[in-house]
Specification:
299 residues, TIM Barrel, 42% helix
């Protein structure tokens, strides 16, 4: 093991440089423009991680990733997660976790995720007992707003991750469920962790929607999708928009990335987290293709 000046190993030195780079990237320049960072949503490589977590994290680092979102990973104590990330030279900047866990034991969950090292937390969607109707949805909005205020008080930040169905509507309200959520919570208490592919699949004008969330969209899921005509005879009882949505490596779908990145700059996006729930071929191939695409962008 090679040791550098000051007693740091090579990996520790790279980690220190990474933190310095992060500080520089997150700072506002003379022109007021903010440079966003990129990260890998580990849910993308969940199957590989179940077999070999250490090898998976190392492979992500070797590919070029330096920051990750913890989701879909093996269930480990916080100190073991942090040790595994530190060993790989990776930093966790966000996580997906349940709201109910925070509601049940707030202090324990705060301690857990602060040990892991991230300040951004998000549920994977609205709590299941708050989806039945508009009244239930509004109760969920209230719970999220209250939790977001508590998290803000301890230096953490709550966001909401969407799928396509959050852009559907309840009867007798012209707004989408997502817009109701944004309208019913305070911007300082709840942000949008916008999943770009699912918003696109729902027919949302993604660049325009990102701009409408200015100051309230620090983290997005950079995900690409092809929206294609579905088979002529859909399954009995099938719901949806009559299209087939296929997740793709970044730059190979229908997301207008140039416009998305421009909107992200205007809205203050801090992190683009690449995620791909599934894909054709070997997972590491589309992770590499997506890294090569996003790493060369001017964010």
């Amino acid at each position: 093991m090679r040791v550098y000046n000051g007693g740091m190993t090579r990996r520790e030195a790279l980690g220190a440089l990474g933190l310095l780079a992060l500080s520089s990237r997150m700072a506002f320049g003379a022109g007021g423009a903010q440079q966003a960072g990129i990260a890998l949503q580990l849910y993308t490589v969940r199957d590989a991680a179940k077999k070999d977590l250490e090898g998976t994290l190392k492979k992500a680092y070797d590919m070029g990733w330096r920051y990750v979102q913890w989701s879909g990973m093996p269930n480990l104590p916080a100190d073991q997660i942090r040790a595994a990330l530190d060993k790989a030279g990776l930093k966790c900047i966000a996580c997906h976790t349940s709201i109910e866990a925070f509601e049940k034991n707030f202090d324990e969950q705060v301690s857990f995720w602060k040990t892991v090292g991230n300040k951004d937390v998000a549920p994977g969607g609205m709590m299941k007992d708050c989806t039945k109707d508009l009244e239930s949805w509004l109760k969920g909005c209230k719970r999220l707003d209250e939790l977001g205020a508590k998290l803000r008080g301890v230096g953490m930040r709550l966001s909401f991750h969407n799928h396509a169905h959050e852009f559907e509507k309840f009867p007798n309200d012209p707004r989408t469920k997502h817009q109701i959520l944004m309208d019913s919570t305070k911007p300082e208490n709840l942000c949008a962790e916008l999943d770009i592919a699912w918003a696109c699949a729902a027919g949302v004008d993604v660049p325009a929607y990102i701009r409408s969330l200015k100051g309230r969209i620090p983290v997005v899921h950079a995900k690409d999708v092809l929206n294609e005509a579905a088979p002529a005879k859909p399954a009995k009882g099938a719901k949806g928009d009559g299209k087939k949505h296929t997740l793709m490596p970044l730059g190979q779908g229908q997301v207008p990335w140039k416009d998305v990145f421009a909107a992200g700059k205007a809205a203050g996006v801090e992190w683009y987290i690449y995620e791909q729930d599934n894909g054709k071929g070997e997972v590491w191939d589309y992770v590499k293709t997506s890294y090569d695409f996003i790493a060369k962008q001017s964010l």
